[in-house]
Amino acid sequence: MEILAFGVQADEKPLIEKAFEGHHDVRCLDVFLSEDTAPIAAGYEIISTSVNADLGNRVLQTLAAGGTQMIAQRSTGFNNIDLQVAERLGFTIARVSYYSPYSVAEFAWTLAMAVNRRIVRASNRTRDFDFRLDGLMGRDLRGRTVGVLGTGKIGEAFTRIAHGFGMNLLGWDVAENPACVGLGMKYVAKEQLFADADLISLHVPLLPATQHIIGADALRMMKDDVILVNSSRGGLIDTDALVSELRMGRFAGVGLDVYEAEAGLFFLDKSLEAIEDDTLARLVTFPNVVVTSHQAYYTVDAVGQIIDTTVRNVLDYKEGRRSENVLVPAAPTT
Predict the structure, then answer these.
(1) CA distances (Å), 110 to each of 187, 256, 290, in order?
(2) Least buried of 143, 176, 188, 246, by fewest C-beta within 10 Å?
(3) Residue ranges with strand state E in 22-134
(4) Cβ distance 313 to 19 under 8 Å?
(5) In this protein, which residues make up the domain named D-isomer specific 2-hydroxyacid dehydrogenase catalytic (predicted)?
(6) Do 49 and 74 touch, CB atoms closer than 8 A?
(7) What number of CA atoms fall less than 13 Å from residue 51's CA on the CB side?
(8) Has 233 been annotated as catalytic?
């Protein structure tokens, strides 16, 4: 049987082909699954998709009509999937429920340090042989307060690094993580976290309850010189509200690896096109903002784990096994 994999990056292709070797053939496409590309899947019982795939109603209808029965998503998040429609159409959908949390946590700190110490601006200057220090002053993090919004596996890894910096630790989540408490984290209401933190990093999933959890009100609660980092999901931040605050000269730095309207932009080369997204176009002009293209997970360790889990999900489907990675069909209730 041949598996069709959408949205495969050049670095991923040899890893995917090697992982499926001896199990199934795999056809890798660099195009992402969308309404326009869904017809390509006709005749494929199993497809694999990337984090920015469109798995809404119309795409799922097209896939079902073409004979697709199983979708193996190569990501942890599944906010891009209409699970109710998928279940009604009889799909089996699995995700990667776990991969290296260090990849994302370390990258979140990379963004934090990049904006704090003005690394991008400094690098651009020295390439032009401009070695002045004007405008490059950062600040020590030791003794300052970090606010971690979401203290699961990735949030915990981020917190351990913050503890190594010697920072005061504030956390917010629906449940406390004993490991974070053991490091000295104090759990507080998110409003207090917004007001007291010098650096805020987001590590919560995108759910209806967390959509725009960083909105206009939350942004106004934050210190004028706060550093804000988002390596989770773009929809956690109201980007228009963020741009409004940045225009007023607020925030020491903002590091974003995700953007709420990134589908159709991120992972693609748009350098020769006019960008119609005015919000993103304005966002990247701020000198205290660094935007990267959803690459926090992109290490050989994490991608290897994602691919290995995807292969297991496919094999489980073919052999009638069920794991914690299966989203659809829903688990039976008792």
Answers:
(1) 24, 11, 11
(2) 143
(3) 25-28, 46-49, 70-73, 92-94
(4) no
(5) 8-327
(6) yes
(7) 26
(8) yes
This prediction has a pTM of 0.91
The domains of the chain, with CATH numbers, are 2-99+299-328 (3.40.50.720), 101-291 (3.40.50.720)
Residue 330 pLDDT grade (very low, low, confident, very high; cuts 50, 70, 90): low
Q: Is 322 a catalytic residue?
A: no
Residue range 114-154, pLDDT digits in tens? 999 999 999 999 999 999 999 999 999 999 999 999 999 99
Return the H-helix or E-strand segment holding 202: strand 199-202
Question: What is the reported pLDDT for 333?
Answer: 44
Choose, from 233, 250, 260, 312, the residue flagged as catalytic: 233
Does position 161 have pLDDT exceeding 90, yes or no? yes
The H or E element that residue 20 is part of is: helix 13-20
Average pLDDT of the chain to the nearest whole number? 95
**Which tokens hold the place of 102?**
């260090």
Which listed residue (74, 203, 294, 312) is catalytic?
294
Report the distance separating Cα 91 and Cα 328, nearest Å.
7
Taking the C-alpha atoms of residue 25 and residue 18, their distance in angstroms, rounded to an integer, is: 10
**Span 263-307, pLDDT tens digits:** 889 988 899 998 899 999 999 999 999 999 999 999 999 999 999
AA identity, residue 238 = D
Contact 239, 216 (CB under 8 A): no
CA distance 44 to 108: 37
